[in-house]
Amino acid sequence: MRKILVVEDDTTLREVYTMILSRGPYKLDTAANGKEALEKCALTRYDLILLDLMMPIMDGVGFLEHFASTTGTPPSKVIILSNLSSGQELAQAMSLGAYKNLLKAELSPGQLLSTVLYELEA
Amino acid sequence: MANDTNRTMRAASLKSRHTQTPGELQRYRLLVENVQDYAIFLLDPDGYVQTWNKGAERIKGYNSEEIIGKHFSEFYLMRDKVAKKPEHELELAKRLGRIEDEDWRVRKDGSKFWANVIITALHDDSGKLIGFGKVTRDLTVRKRFEDDLRQANTLLKQHQVDLERLSAAKDEFISLASHQLRTPATGIKQYLGMLLEGFLGDLTPEQLASVQRAYESNERQIATVNSLLKVAQLDAGRVKLKKKPTDVSEILRTIVNDYTEKFTTHDQQVQLDVPDTLEGNVDEAHYRMSLENLIDNASKYTPNGGHVHIAGHLANDQLIVTIKDTGVGIAPEDIPKLFNKFSRVPNALSDAAGGSGLGLYWADKIIALHGGTIEIESTQGKGTTFYVRVPME
Question: Deepest in the core among A67, B299, B371, B387, taking most CB within 10 A?
Fold first, then answer.
């Protein structure tokens, strides 16, 4: 079974993304920051990671840096799901191997779900 | 010829000044004695006061009986006397012929005044030092004025620094607050979206309509927060354009395509007149958003059934995009206000149009960053045309 990981520090968003994405045919895990995400990635190989950028403890860029240094190359598809449409953090995340960038405030639940399903197939 | 003779005579008289008549000497003495604005007096070679004039009396407060015969160090502050400044100044004047000093001095009543002092060494014909001439001016008023000015200047600079810091703090605050507002708004969007998209089962038509209104309201909030963030970024000088040759015809085609649904909803006809390709040197993302703002406005402020005409062409080394609508138009007195931050011009459609009043402000600034302008022609009740000009370079 495919596995996806949602990394999001906001509890409400983490819960609502879980409600939306739990409708797909895959196993869904969540993490509240980059550090938690690294711990989960040490135990499980995820097919897709939806990664927020601005998070406490360890942010998205921090996660990607560690992820790349521990595994050599990011083995999972990482999609940035943040509210940053430009800026240094986003540029850094993309250069660290993130695959694409989605804006949280622009995605409806249906669009989010269909994007995830599409990316898992692609 | 007569003039030459006069000049020669005057020169001869100047040359023979050292042999002034008693009458002339009397006049000089009277002149010096009666000058009010300068303290002019003589010191003997050791610094004891020998003569006194009206100006000295006025400035320093002593009359001639009180001061003649006293040492001129009376006029110095205690700290200067201790430091032997009076003696030092006489020594310097002796060596250099003349010294000038500006510093605090003391009046008879102990009060201080800011003095400009010139001490000139005086010698007789054989070159022997016979004393010193001392001229003192009271510049306290000027000094106070200068000090006040300096203080005001320092204060002004401090205010400017404070203002800049405040402005940066404001930008930072807007940016942070907007980020913080956007996260819960995103949560609301997802929950309402689940209701609207049937994730949580069917709703009655009434429920659906209410959720739809709540969703739209939240969308407006997200749009406002996004605008605030964009404006904060712009005001903080963080927008750096990345200009490159771009097909503006294609930009306009995609915008019109994206807005088709909106135009159709309002039964508005859109006409796009652009060449196959129209190359401009612009920052694609920012330029596109500026045009989107104007095209969105054209639709918002045009009644149902109206027309929006969009065209692009090159003229005089300028890339010109015109957006012409058959909308409500803008009153002449409101046109200058249009590009102000949070400007909302009241008209028949402004309530329905919503918006944050930041779109035109932002667009105008972005086009200005391109070195261009946005100009407006409008007739109330007939419509408005926006001209967006950007140099070709």
Answer: A67
Neighbours of B251 (CB within 10 A): 22
B179: nearest CA partner in chain A: A83
CA distance A91 to chain B (A): 15
Q: Which residues of chain A does B182 touch, with a Cβ-Cβ cutoff of 8 Å?
A: 83, 104-105
Counting other chains too, the contacts that B87-96 makes at CB distance below 8 Å and 24 or more residues apart are B87/B47, B89/B117, B89/B119, B90/B43, B90/B47, B90/B119, B90/B132, B93/B119, B93/B120, B93/B121, B93/B132, B94/B121, B94/B129
- Cα–Cα distance for residue pair B381/B339, rounded to 1 Å: 21
The string of pLDDT tens digits covering residues B259-287 is 998 899 999 999 999 999 999 999 998 99
Using only C-alpha atoms, chain B has a radius of gyration, in whole angstroms, of 41
Mutation target for A interface from B179, B190, B242: give the one with most A CBs within 10 A.
B190
The complex scores an ipTM of: 0.86
**What is the secondary structure of B42-65 as a DSSP string?**
EE-TTSBB----HHHHHHH---HH
The pTM of this model reads: 0.61
Instruction: Give the best residue of B178, B183, B195 to mutate against chain A (max A CB count within 10 A).
Output: B183
Residue B7, pLDDT above cutoff 60: no
Average pLDDT, chain B: 88
pLDDT at res. B12? 44
Q: Facing residues of B129 across strands?
A: B123
Task: Give the residue among B280, B276, B309 at the shortest CA–CA distance from B390.
Answer: B280
Q: Which of chain B's residues have a Cβ under 8 Å away from the Cβ of A13?
A: 183, 186-187, 190
- Do A32 and A8 meet the contact criterion of CB atoms below 8 Å apart? yes
Q: How far is CA B284 from CA B241, B249, B259, B287, in A?
A: 9, 12, 18, 5
pLDDT, tens only, B341-391: 877 776 666 666 666 778 899 999 999 999 999 999 999 889 999 999 999
Instruction: Kindly report the CATH class assigned to A2-121.
Output: alpha beta
Number of Cβ pairs < 8 A linking chain A and chain B: 48
A-facing residues of B in 152-191 (CB < 8 A) are 179, 182-187, 189-191
Among chain A residues, CA nearest to B238: A87
Q: How confident is the model at residue A74 (pLDDT cuts 50, 70, 90)?
A: low
What residues of B are in contact with residue A19 (Cβ under 8 Å)? Answer: 194, 199
**Percentage of chain B surpassing pLDDT 70?**
92
Gap from A10 CA to chain B (nearest CA, Å):
8
Tens-digit pLDDT profile for residues B122-144: 999 999 999 999 999 999 999 99
